[in-house]
Amino acid sequence: MRKTTLEALAANLVDKPISLEQCVVWARLRFEELFHNQIAQLIFNFPLDMATSSGAPFWSGPKRPPTPLQFSADDPLHLGFIIAAANLRAFNYGLKGSTDPALFKKAVEAAMVPEFVPKQGVKIATDPKEAEKAPAAPPPDEDEASDAIVATLPAPSSLAGYRMTPVDFEKDDDTNFHIDFIAAASNLRARNYKITEADHHRTKQIAGKIIPAIATTTSLVTGLVCLELLKLMQPAKPIESFKNGFVNLALPFVSFSEPIAAPKRKIGAKGAEWTLWDRYEVDEGRELTLKEFLAYFQERHKLEVTMISSGVSILYSFFTNQKKLKERMPMTMSQLVQEISKAEFKPTQNSLTFEICCNDEDDEDVEVPFVQYKFRGW
Predict the structure, then answer these.
(1) Residue 18: partners with Cβ closer than 8 Å, 6 or more residues away
(2) What does the pLDDT look like over 265-319, one tens digit per residue?
(3) String of b and e for 342-352 (b: at least 16 CB within 10 Å)?
(4) 206: buried, middle or exposed (CB in 10 Å: 19+, 13-18, 0-12)?
(5) Which among 303, 300, 305 has a CA at the least distance from the CA of 282?
(6) Taking the alpha carbons of 109, 110, 113, 114 in that order, is the dihedral positive or negative?
(7) Which residues pair with 254 in a beta bridge?
(8) Are the C-beta atoms of 11 and 152 separated by less than 8 Å?
(9) How far is CA 281 from CA 270, 301, 375, in A?
(10) N- to C-terminal Cα distance for the chain?
Protein backbone atom coordinates (compact mmCIF):
# COMPACT_ATOMS: atom_id res chain seq x y z
CA MET A 1 0.00 0.00 0.00
CA ARG A 2 2.80 2.42 0.86
CA LYS A 3 4.62 1.67 -2.40
CA THR A 4 1.43 2.20 -4.44
CA THR A 5 0.80 5.57 -2.80
CA LEU A 6 4.38 6.68 -3.35
CA GLU A 7 4.26 5.63 -7.00
CA ALA A 8 1.15 7.79 -7.47
CA LEU A 9 2.88 10.74 -5.78
CA ALA A 10 5.96 10.34 -7.95
CA ALA A 11 3.89 10.10 -11.14
CA ASN A 12 2.16 13.40 -10.34
CA LEU A 13 4.93 15.42 -8.68
CA VAL A 14 8.20 14.38 -10.33
CA ASP A 15 7.09 14.79 -13.95
CA LYS A 16 4.56 17.57 -13.41
CA PRO A 17 3.77 19.54 -16.59
CA ILE A 18 4.19 23.29 -16.85
CA SER A 19 2.38 23.76 -20.18
CA LEU A 20 -0.47 22.29 -22.18
CA GLU A 21 2.06 21.02 -24.76
CA GLN A 22 3.65 18.81 -22.09
CA CYS A 23 0.19 17.45 -21.26
CA VAL A 24 -0.23 16.60 -24.95
CA VAL A 25 3.05 14.66 -24.95
CA TRP A 26 1.91 12.79 -21.83
CA ALA A 27 -1.41 11.93 -23.52
CA ARG A 28 0.41 10.74 -26.65
CA LEU A 29 2.59 8.38 -24.58
CA ARG A 30 -0.51 7.09 -22.75
CA PHE A 31 -2.13 6.36 -26.12
CA GLU A 32 0.94 4.40 -27.21
CA GLU A 33 1.04 2.40 -23.96
CA LEU A 34 -2.67 1.61 -23.76
CA PHE A 35 -3.63 0.97 -27.35
CA HIS A 36 -0.40 -0.19 -28.98
CA ASN A 37 2.26 -1.47 -26.57
CA GLN A 38 -0.04 -3.49 -24.29
CA ILE A 39 -1.72 -5.10 -27.30
CA ALA A 40 1.60 -5.74 -29.05
CA GLN A 41 2.93 -7.40 -25.88
CA LEU A 42 -0.18 -9.59 -25.73
CA ILE A 43 0.30 -10.67 -29.35
CA PHE A 44 4.00 -11.32 -28.63
CA ASN A 45 3.06 -13.62 -25.74
CA PHE A 46 0.20 -15.25 -27.65
CA PRO A 47 0.94 -15.19 -31.41
CA LEU A 48 -1.99 -15.22 -33.82
CA ASP A 49 -1.06 -18.75 -34.98
CA MET A 50 -0.72 -20.13 -31.43
CA ALA A 51 -2.51 -23.40 -30.64
CA THR A 52 -3.72 -24.80 -27.32
CA SER A 53 -2.45 -28.08 -25.82
CA SER A 54 -5.29 -29.87 -27.63
CA GLY A 55 -4.24 -28.44 -30.99
CA ALA A 56 -7.14 -25.99 -31.34
CA PRO A 57 -6.41 -22.36 -32.32
CA PHE A 58 -5.82 -20.24 -29.22
CA TRP A 59 -7.53 -17.19 -30.79
CA SER A 60 -10.96 -18.63 -31.51
CA GLY A 61 -14.58 -18.37 -30.35
CA PRO A 62 -15.01 -15.59 -27.79
CA LYS A 63 -11.25 -14.86 -27.79
CA ARG A 64 -10.88 -12.07 -30.33
CA PRO A 65 -7.32 -11.44 -31.51
CA PRO A 66 -6.60 -7.74 -30.84
CA THR A 67 -4.82 -5.38 -33.21
CA PRO A 68 -2.34 -2.71 -32.02
CA LEU A 69 -3.36 0.77 -33.16
CA GLN A 70 -0.95 2.92 -35.13
CA PHE A 71 -1.45 6.51 -34.03
CA SER A 72 -2.58 9.03 -36.64
CA ALA A 73 -3.30 12.66 -35.83
CA ASP A 74 -5.66 12.69 -38.84
CA ASP A 75 -7.92 10.09 -37.20
CA PRO A 76 -10.64 12.03 -35.29
CA LEU A 77 -10.86 9.31 -32.62
CA HIS A 78 -7.10 9.25 -32.02
CA LEU A 79 -6.87 13.03 -31.83
CA GLY A 80 -10.04 13.15 -29.70
CA PHE A 81 -8.33 10.97 -27.07
CA ILE A 82 -5.28 13.26 -27.05
CA ILE A 83 -7.40 16.42 -26.72
CA ALA A 84 -9.55 15.03 -23.89
CA ALA A 85 -6.68 13.42 -21.94
CA ALA A 86 -4.42 16.47 -22.26
CA ASN A 87 -7.15 18.87 -21.15
CA LEU A 88 -8.01 16.71 -18.13
CA ARG A 89 -4.35 16.60 -17.07
CA ALA A 90 -4.05 20.34 -17.61
CA PHE A 91 -7.08 20.83 -15.33
CA ASN A 92 -5.33 18.79 -12.61
CA TYR A 93 -2.38 21.15 -12.69
CA GLY A 94 -4.27 24.42 -13.11
CA LEU A 95 -3.11 24.93 -16.70
CA LYS A 96 -5.21 26.55 -19.41
CA GLY A 97 -6.75 24.04 -21.80
CA SER A 98 -7.65 24.33 -25.48
CA THR A 99 -9.81 22.77 -28.19
CA ASP A 100 -7.74 23.93 -31.17
CA PRO A 101 -6.89 20.77 -33.20
CA ALA A 102 -3.93 22.52 -34.86
CA LEU A 103 -2.26 23.09 -31.48
CA PHE A 104 -2.58 19.42 -30.55
CA LYS A 105 -1.39 18.14 -33.93
CA LYS A 106 1.70 20.33 -33.72
CA ALA A 107 2.48 19.18 -30.15
CA VAL A 108 1.91 15.52 -31.03
CA GLU A 109 4.30 15.73 -33.97
CA ALA A 110 7.01 17.02 -31.62
CA ALA A 111 6.52 14.15 -29.14
CA MET A 112 9.33 11.56 -28.96
CA VAL A 113 7.62 8.16 -28.78
CA PRO A 114 9.98 5.24 -27.96
CA GLU A 115 9.82 2.28 -30.32
CA PHE A 116 8.08 -0.73 -28.83
CA VAL A 117 10.35 -3.59 -27.74
CA PRO A 118 8.58 -6.75 -26.43
CA LYS A 119 9.38 -7.67 -22.85
CA GLN A 120 10.88 -11.13 -22.46
CA GLY A 121 9.73 -13.50 -19.73
CA VAL A 122 6.33 -11.86 -19.18
CA LYS A 123 3.82 -14.56 -18.22
CA ILE A 124 0.08 -14.04 -18.59
CA ALA A 125 -2.19 -16.74 -17.15
CA THR A 126 -4.86 -17.85 -19.62
CA ASP A 127 -6.69 -20.16 -17.21
CA PRO A 128 -7.73 -19.05 -13.69
CA LYS A 129 -7.19 -22.61 -12.38
CA GLU A 130 -3.63 -22.66 -13.70
CA ALA A 131 -2.99 -19.28 -12.09
CA GLU A 132 -4.12 -20.69 -8.72
CA LYS A 133 -1.84 -23.73 -9.05
CA ALA A 134 1.21 -21.73 -10.12
CA PRO A 135 3.73 -21.12 -7.33
CA ALA A 136 3.51 -17.61 -5.95
CA ALA A 137 6.43 -15.35 -6.79
CA PRO A 138 8.44 -14.15 -3.79
CA PRO A 139 7.20 -10.72 -2.70
CA PRO A 140 9.56 -7.88 -3.62
CA ASP A 141 11.26 -5.86 -0.93
CA GLU A 142 8.64 -3.09 -0.61
CA ASP A 143 10.62 -1.03 1.89
CA GLU A 144 13.64 -0.86 -0.39
CA ALA A 145 11.50 0.06 -3.42
CA SER A 146 9.58 2.65 -1.40
CA ASP A 147 12.79 4.29 -0.14
CA ALA A 148 14.01 4.54 -3.75
CA ILE A 149 10.81 6.32 -4.76
CA VAL A 150 10.98 8.69 -1.78
CA ALA A 151 14.47 9.72 -2.87
CA THR A 152 13.07 10.94 -6.20
CA LEU A 153 10.28 13.08 -4.69
CA PRO A 154 10.77 16.86 -4.57
CA ALA A 155 11.42 18.44 -1.17
CA PRO A 156 8.22 19.64 0.60
CA SER A 157 9.65 23.17 0.79
CA SER A 158 9.78 23.33 -3.02
CA LEU A 159 6.02 22.71 -3.18
CA ALA A 160 4.93 25.54 -0.88
CA GLY A 161 1.59 26.86 -2.12
CA TYR A 162 1.43 24.21 -4.88
CA ARG A 163 -2.04 22.81 -5.49
CA MET A 164 -3.48 20.08 -7.68
CA THR A 165 -7.19 19.85 -8.49
CA PRO A 166 -8.95 16.48 -8.70
CA VAL A 167 -11.43 15.91 -11.52
CA ASP A 168 -14.95 15.31 -10.17
CA PHE A 169 -16.92 13.40 -12.80
CA GLU A 170 -19.85 15.37 -14.28
CA LYS A 171 -21.57 13.83 -17.30
CA ASP A 172 -23.90 16.76 -18.10
CA ASP A 173 -21.20 19.35 -18.86
CA ASP A 174 -20.19 18.83 -22.49
CA THR A 175 -17.26 21.24 -22.17
CA ASN A 176 -15.31 19.47 -19.39
CA PHE A 177 -13.98 16.57 -21.57
CA HIS A 178 -15.19 13.89 -19.12
CA ILE A 179 -17.53 12.08 -21.51
CA ASP A 180 -15.19 12.90 -24.42
CA PHE A 181 -12.36 11.03 -22.69
CA ILE A 182 -14.52 8.04 -21.77
CA ALA A 183 -15.93 7.83 -25.30
CA ALA A 184 -12.49 8.05 -26.92
CA ALA A 185 -10.82 5.55 -24.57
CA SER A 186 -13.64 2.98 -24.78
CA ASN A 187 -13.94 3.27 -28.56
CA LEU A 188 -10.18 2.91 -29.02
CA ARG A 189 -10.22 -0.28 -26.95
CA ALA A 190 -13.24 -1.45 -28.96
CA ARG A 191 -11.26 -0.77 -32.14
CA ASN A 192 -8.40 -2.89 -30.78
CA TYR A 193 -10.79 -5.84 -30.64
CA LYS A 194 -12.97 -4.89 -33.64
CA ILE A 195 -16.01 -4.38 -31.37
CA THR A 196 -18.85 -2.05 -32.37
CA GLU A 197 -18.07 1.48 -31.21
CA ALA A 198 -20.56 3.69 -29.32
CA ASP A 199 -21.36 7.32 -30.10
CA HIS A 200 -21.09 10.22 -27.64
CA HIS A 201 -24.74 10.05 -26.50
CA ARG A 202 -24.68 6.28 -25.93
CA THR A 203 -21.47 6.66 -23.93
CA LYS A 204 -23.03 9.40 -21.80
CA GLN A 205 -26.06 7.18 -21.18
CA ILE A 206 -23.91 4.26 -20.01
CA ALA A 207 -21.41 6.35 -17.99
CA GLY A 208 -24.18 8.31 -16.26
CA LYS A 209 -26.18 5.18 -15.42
CA ILE A 210 -29.29 6.82 -16.83
CA ILE A 211 -31.21 3.58 -17.39
CA PRO A 212 -31.35 2.51 -13.68
CA ALA A 213 -32.46 6.03 -12.72
CA ILE A 214 -35.32 6.03 -15.23
CA ALA A 215 -36.67 2.81 -13.73
CA THR A 216 -37.15 4.30 -10.25
CA THR A 217 -38.08 7.70 -8.82
CA THR A 218 -37.32 9.56 -12.04
CA SER A 219 -39.91 7.58 -13.99
CA LEU A 220 -42.55 8.15 -11.29
CA VAL A 221 -41.93 11.91 -11.18
CA THR A 222 -41.90 12.13 -14.98
CA GLY A 223 -45.22 10.29 -15.15
CA LEU A 224 -46.85 12.63 -12.64
CA VAL A 225 -45.57 15.71 -14.47
CA CYS A 226 -46.95 14.38 -17.76
CA LEU A 227 -50.37 13.95 -16.13
CA GLU A 228 -50.37 17.60 -15.10
CA LEU A 229 -49.30 18.66 -18.60
CA LEU A 230 -52.28 16.76 -20.05
CA LYS A 231 -54.54 18.87 -17.84
CA LEU A 232 -52.99 22.04 -19.24
CA MET A 233 -53.73 20.85 -22.79
CA GLN A 234 -57.41 20.36 -21.98
CA PRO A 235 -60.04 23.13 -21.68
CA ALA A 236 -59.62 25.41 -18.66
CA LYS A 237 -59.90 23.51 -15.38
CA PRO A 238 -60.28 24.76 -11.80
CA ILE A 239 -57.16 24.82 -9.69
CA GLU A 240 -58.58 21.94 -7.59
CA SER A 241 -58.02 19.66 -10.60
CA PHE A 242 -54.25 20.15 -10.38
CA LYS A 243 -52.01 18.49 -7.80
CA ASN A 244 -48.66 18.94 -6.09
CA GLY A 245 -47.03 15.54 -5.53
CA PHE A 246 -44.61 14.50 -2.76
CA VAL A 247 -42.80 11.19 -3.25
CA ASN A 248 -40.29 9.17 -1.23
CA LEU A 249 -39.96 5.60 -2.47
CA ALA A 250 -37.62 4.66 0.36
CA LEU A 251 -40.46 4.80 2.95
CA PRO A 252 -42.56 4.37 0.67
CA PHE A 253 -44.60 7.58 0.75
CA VAL A 254 -46.77 9.25 -1.92
CA SER A 255 -48.93 12.27 -1.11
CA PHE A 256 -50.89 14.86 -3.11
CA SER A 257 -52.17 18.31 -2.26
CA GLU A 258 -53.95 21.15 -4.06
CA PRO A 259 -51.62 23.92 -5.25
CA ILE A 260 -52.08 27.44 -3.90
CA ALA A 261 -53.23 30.03 -6.41
CA ALA A 262 -50.78 32.83 -7.18
CA PRO A 263 -51.62 35.94 -5.10
CA LYS A 264 -53.51 38.61 -7.06
CA ARG A 265 -52.43 42.22 -7.00
CA LYS A 266 -54.20 45.32 -8.25
CA ILE A 267 -52.73 48.19 -10.22
CA GLY A 268 -53.92 51.09 -8.06
CA ALA A 269 -57.53 51.41 -6.94
CA LYS A 270 -59.09 51.17 -10.40
CA GLY A 271 -56.52 49.09 -12.32
CA ALA A 272 -56.61 45.49 -13.48
CA GLU A 273 -55.63 42.52 -11.33
CA TRP A 274 -52.43 40.61 -12.08
CA THR A 275 -50.24 37.79 -10.72
CA LEU A 276 -46.54 37.02 -11.00
CA TRP A 277 -47.35 34.98 -14.13
CA ASP A 278 -48.67 38.02 -16.03
CA ARG A 279 -46.63 40.27 -18.32
CA TYR A 280 -47.13 43.47 -20.25
CA GLU A 281 -46.50 42.30 -23.81
CA VAL A 282 -45.22 45.11 -26.02
CA ASP A 283 -45.22 43.99 -29.67
CA GLU A 284 -45.82 46.86 -32.08
CA GLY A 285 -44.29 45.17 -35.13
CA ARG A 286 -41.33 47.54 -35.00
CA GLU A 287 -38.76 48.95 -32.61
CA LEU A 288 -39.89 51.64 -30.17
CA THR A 289 -37.70 54.50 -29.10
CA LEU A 290 -37.47 55.32 -25.39
CA LYS A 291 -39.79 58.30 -25.99
CA GLU A 292 -42.35 56.07 -27.75
CA PHE A 293 -42.04 53.41 -25.04
CA LEU A 294 -42.94 55.96 -22.33
CA ALA A 295 -45.83 57.29 -24.43
CA TYR A 296 -47.09 53.74 -25.05
CA PHE A 297 -47.69 53.15 -21.32
CA GLN A 298 -49.12 56.61 -20.82
CA GLU A 299 -51.68 56.19 -23.62
CA ARG A 300 -52.41 52.46 -23.39
CA HIS A 301 -52.36 51.88 -19.63
CA LYS A 302 -52.62 55.40 -18.14
CA LEU A 303 -49.32 54.86 -16.35
CA GLU A 304 -46.40 57.25 -15.98
CA VAL A 305 -43.18 55.23 -16.16
CA THR A 306 -40.67 56.61 -13.65
CA MET A 307 -37.95 53.99 -14.03
CA ILE A 308 -36.96 51.24 -16.50
CA SER A 309 -34.34 48.62 -15.73
CA SER A 310 -32.93 45.64 -17.60
CA GLY A 311 -31.19 43.20 -15.28
CA VAL A 312 -28.97 45.33 -13.04
CA SER A 313 -28.82 48.28 -15.46
CA ILE A 314 -31.11 51.33 -15.17
CA LEU A 315 -32.09 52.44 -18.67
CA TYR A 316 -34.28 55.37 -17.62
CA SER A 317 -35.30 57.17 -14.45
CA PHE A 318 -37.03 60.46 -13.68
CA PHE A 319 -33.92 61.70 -11.86
CA THR A 320 -31.51 60.99 -14.73
CA ASN A 321 -29.40 63.92 -15.92
CA GLN A 322 -31.43 65.90 -18.48
CA LYS A 323 -28.62 65.92 -21.00
CA LYS A 324 -28.42 62.13 -20.90
CA LEU A 325 -32.19 61.85 -21.15
CA LYS A 326 -32.18 64.00 -24.27
CA GLU A 327 -29.57 61.71 -25.84
CA ARG A 328 -31.46 58.53 -24.92
CA MET A 329 -34.99 59.52 -25.93
CA PRO A 330 -34.51 58.90 -29.69
CA MET A 331 -32.65 55.59 -29.09
CA THR A 332 -34.53 52.30 -29.54
CA MET A 333 -34.98 50.09 -26.50
CA SER A 334 -32.59 47.42 -27.79
CA GLN A 335 -29.96 50.10 -28.51
CA LEU A 336 -30.35 51.36 -24.94
CA VAL A 337 -29.76 47.87 -23.54
CA GLN A 338 -26.65 47.40 -25.68
CA GLU A 339 -25.36 50.88 -24.87
CA ILE A 340 -25.87 50.73 -21.10
CA SER A 341 -25.70 47.00 -20.26
CA LYS A 342 -23.02 46.22 -22.86
CA ALA A 343 -25.12 43.16 -23.65
CA GLU A 344 -24.79 41.08 -26.82
CA PHE A 345 -27.97 39.57 -28.22
CA LYS A 346 -28.02 35.97 -29.42
CA PRO A 347 -29.07 35.48 -33.07
CA THR A 348 -32.22 33.68 -31.94
CA GLN A 349 -33.18 36.27 -29.30
CA ASN A 350 -36.16 38.42 -30.26
CA SER A 351 -37.42 39.82 -26.95
CA LEU A 352 -36.22 41.62 -23.82
CA THR A 353 -37.59 41.73 -20.29
CA PHE A 354 -37.87 45.07 -18.52
CA GLU A 355 -38.81 45.92 -14.95
CA ILE A 356 -40.65 49.21 -14.67
CA CYS A 357 -41.76 51.50 -11.83
CA CYS A 358 -44.92 53.52 -12.46
CA ASN A 359 -47.29 56.13 -11.08
CA ASP A 360 -51.03 55.86 -11.73
CA GLU A 361 -53.44 58.67 -12.61
CA ASP A 362 -53.56 59.70 -8.93
CA ASP A 363 -49.75 60.06 -8.94
CA GLU A 364 -49.42 57.06 -6.60
CA ASP A 365 -46.67 54.46 -6.88
CA VAL A 366 -48.13 51.17 -8.15
CA GLU A 367 -46.75 47.67 -8.58
CA VAL A 368 -46.97 46.38 -12.15
CA PRO A 369 -45.93 43.19 -13.99
CA PHE A 370 -42.67 42.80 -15.90
CA VAL A 371 -42.62 43.94 -19.53
CA GLN A 372 -41.97 41.45 -22.33
CA TYR A 373 -40.73 43.66 -25.17
CA LYS A 374 -40.35 42.23 -28.69
CA PHE A 375 -37.64 43.96 -30.70
CA ARG A 376 -37.17 41.73 -33.75
CA GLY A 377 -38.46 38.62 -35.52
CA TRP A 378 -41.57 40.08 -37.11
Answers:
(1) 95
(2) 988 777 789 999 999 999 999 999 999 999 999 999 999 999 999 988 999 999 8
(3) eeeeeeeeeeb
(4) middle
(5) 300
(6) positive
(7) 247
(8) no
(9) 20, 12, 11
(10) 69
Q: What 3 state SS string does 15-72 have?
A: CCCCCHHHHHHHHHHHHHHHHHHHHHHHHHHCCCCCECCCCCECCCCCCCCCCCCCCC
Question: In 138-175, which positions are buried (b, 16+ CB within 10 angstroms) versus exposed (e)?
Answer: eeeeeeeebeebeeeeeeeeeeeeeeeeeeeeebeeee
Neighbour count for residue 126 (Cβ, 10 Å): 12
DSSP one-letter code for 267: S
Q: Report CA-CA distances (Å) from 127 to 33, 60, 130.
A: 25, 15, 5
Exposure string for 291-329, b = 16+ CB within 10 A, e = fewer: eebbebbeeebebbbeebbbeeeebbeeeeeeeeeeebe
Q: What is the pLDDT of residues 283-294, one digit of tens each?
A: 999 999 999 999
Instruction: Determine whether 3 is exposed, middle or buried from the number of CB atoms within 10 Å of its CB (0-12, 13-18, 19+).
Output: middle
Listing DSSP states for 181-201 in one string gives HHHHHHHHHHHHTTPPP--HH
DSSP 330: T
How many Cβ atoms sit within 10 Å of the Cβ of residue 29? 15
Q: Which domains does the chain have, with CATH numbers?
A: 2-210 (1.10.10.2660), 265-374 (3.10.290.60)
Distance CA 317, CA 321 (A): 9
